[in-house]
Design brief:
Layout (H helix, E strand, L loop, with lengths): L1 H18 L2 H8 L3 H10 L1 H27 L2 E7 L2 E8 L2 H11 L1 H4 L30 H4 L1
Helix pairs in contact: 1-2, 1-4, 3-4, 4-5
């Protein structure tokens, strides 16, 4: 059993590091994903290896996003139905996402709550103790 388990484990972890999706990696390794889930629950070392493989896949995605943002991708240019060349297209969206992820203090989305005319938000706190009664409408309490 150990040899068979090791065979699918190596194939699974390699595929997981490539694609980052447990279901696809299990399929590539020829093992049922339920088997993988059960082993992750029972084997902390295997679970850690899975997390490392997923991080490796995420690193690949980040590297590709960075490449597309900074180096761009070549897209065909057509005129009159004829291919006349290519142009390099950069992704401002990917660049913004990368900055938001890596430089949160500067680029993260923020929401500021203000009250009337830009003043502070006023809040009322009502503490009700005891058993609620159907006899007194909530509007009469507030």
């Amino acid at each position: 059993m150990g040899d068979k388990r090791q065979l699918w484990t190596d194939a699974f972890l390699t595929a997981l590091a490539d694609c980052g999706v447990l279901t696809y990696a299990a399929e590539a390794a020829g093992v049922d994903r339920g088997t993988v889930w059960r082993r992750r629950e029972a084997d902390p070392d295997f679970a850690a290896q899975c997390e490392l493989a997923i991080e490796m896949a995420a690193d690949k995605l980040e590297q590709e996003a960075r490449r597309r943002a900074l180096e761009g991708v070549e897209e065909p240019v057509y005129q009159g139905g004829q291919l006349i060349g290519t142009k390099t297209v950069y992704s401002d969206q990917l660049l913004a996402l990368l900055l938001k992820g890596r430089r949160k203090k500067v680029f993260a989305d923020r929401t500021e709550l203000t009250g009337a005319d830009g003043g502070p938000v006023k809040a009322q706190v009502l503490v009700v103790t005891g058993v609620p009664s159907d006899e007194i409408p909530i509007e009469d309490i507030v």
